[in-house]
Write a structure and sequence with these properties.
It contains ten helices and 19 strands. The chain is of the alpha/beta class. Strands 1, 12, 13, 14, 15, 16, 17, 18 and 19 form a nine-stranded mixed sheet that branches. The chain has an eight-stranded parallel barrel with strand order 2-3-4-5-6-9-10-11, surrounded by five helices. Strands 7-8 form a two-stranded antiparallel ribbon. β12 and β13 form a beta hairpin. The two termini are about 30 Å apart.
């Protein structure tokens, strides 16, 4: 660690390779699209794609990010979310007309009108994927995330028919992200009752999701649409989504780095691969070592599960009244004997977000630096 300026973002090469292999082995005949928001490094994305032929295509989170990646030689990009950036969409339409494959996401007639107008302005082509809601209702309880307003085949057909009448748009895909399966752990510490409820609702949701997705796909096919992709799932739902006959591909991202939140799933366990190291800059009292920086809090509802945690040396814990701070993070150890300048290693709660804090990822194998990968931020990219 002495040859690495701190703070630093570190990738464990062995864990990274192991996770790529483990995820590829669970594809069950589907292809795997990589969620770029969980990786945020073009060079790491390329390594994943090269690791196994089952990895095909990327799911982006921003139209400008998609243009950035196309210009770096990537292709087959699915925008995971609707967007409202006229200039970037115009560039996408031109790239598509020139033979590249970028797919825009819609879930409303307003999205369609907007994209068709841009397609007309630049005389380009826009491939379209319809995003559908895969949440489950338990009475008044909404189990899932608030994404698309489209919940059934009737909703989907209404949007699809409008696309059919557009000169510059072509419907080629359907996507449904079952966040309540893929993105929710059921082994959260000190939440035994909630864990039991979540596990029960997951089991009830899985069958209902599969049936509803099949009805939507069948309805589109009967209407004459040819779907080249039906996207579903996430790292946390590979086991179930891969068994759905109508699904052609699964989107996976966070499992490659395996952040803290992935410790709380019962159906899989990957190896922690991405860490960050902070230098100790002062020792305010015995047992407390204060690091520079560290307040890399992850998105989602605020809570202890979104806070990074010290993992090495073992036995470190954050102070309850300070936590991980913007410019300093004190860590308490019962026994560790550390010095100013020593590193403390942390794991982030979620995957790609931590890459926005660093310009490069330092790849480590057997304690040696073997490669340095620029993050999006390191290449001047800032897309959200």
């Amino acid at each position: 660690m002495k040859q690495i300026p701190l703070p630093a973002l570190l990738l464990d090469e062995a864990a990274f390779e192991s996770n790529c292999k483990s995820i590829a082995a669970k594809a069950n005949g589907k292809t795997i699209r990589i969620a770029t928001k969980s990786i945020r490094s073009a060079k790491v994305l390329q390594r994943i794609l090269e690791s196994d032929s089952v990895f095909k295509g990327l799911m982006c989170f921003s139209p400008r990010e998609a243009v950035f990646l196309i210009e770096k030689g990537f292709d087959d990009l699915l925008l995971g979310y609707p967007c409202w950036d006229e200039e970037a969409i115009g560039e996408i339409a031109k790239h598509n007309k020139n033979g590249r494959r970028i797919i825009c996401m819609v879930d409303s007639e307003e999205h369609i009108d907007f994209l068709e107008r841009i397609g007309q302005q630049v005389n380009g082509k826009l491939n379209i994927c319809i995003d559908v809601d895969m949440s489950t209702k338990f009475g008044s309880l909404h189990f899932g995330v608030r994404r698309s307003p489209l919940t059934n085949e009737i909703d989907v057909l209404q949007v699809a028919r409008k696309i059919k009448n557009c000169e510059h748009l072509e419907l080629i895909g359907l996507m449904g992200y079952e966040a309540q399966i893929a993105g929710v752990g059921e082994q959260m510490p000190s939440q035994q009752l909630k864990n039991k409820v979540v596990a029960y609702m997951k089991r009830k949701s899985i069958q209902e999701i599969a049936q509803r997705r099949k009805r939507m796909v069948d309805a589109l096919k009967q209407e004459g649409f040819i779907l080249t992709l039906v996207n579903g799932g996430g790292t946390g739902s590979m086991d179930t989504t891969s068994k759905e006959e109508v699904v052609t591909e699964i989107t996976v991202g966070s499992g490659i780095y395996s952040p803290l939140l992935f410790d709380y799933y019962s159906s899989f366990q990957y190896k922690p691969a991405l860490f960050f190291a902070l230098p100790i800059v002062r020792i305010p009292s015995p047992h407390i070592y204060t690091c520079l920086g560290g307040g890399y809090i992850s998105s989602g509802p605020a809570g202890k599960d979104k806070v990074p945690q010290p993992v090495y040396p073992k036995g470190g814990r954050l102070l309850p009244l300070e936590g991980a701070g913007e410019v300093q993070t004190p860590v308490y150890f019962d026994e560790a004997q550390l010095q100013i300048g020593d590193p403390i290693i942390f794991r982030a709660a979620k995957a790609g977000e931590i890459c926005e804090r660093f310009q490069e990822i330092v790849c480590i194998s057997n304690g040696q630096i073997i490669e340095r990968y620029e993050t999006y931020r390191g290449e001047g990219g800032c897309f959200l």
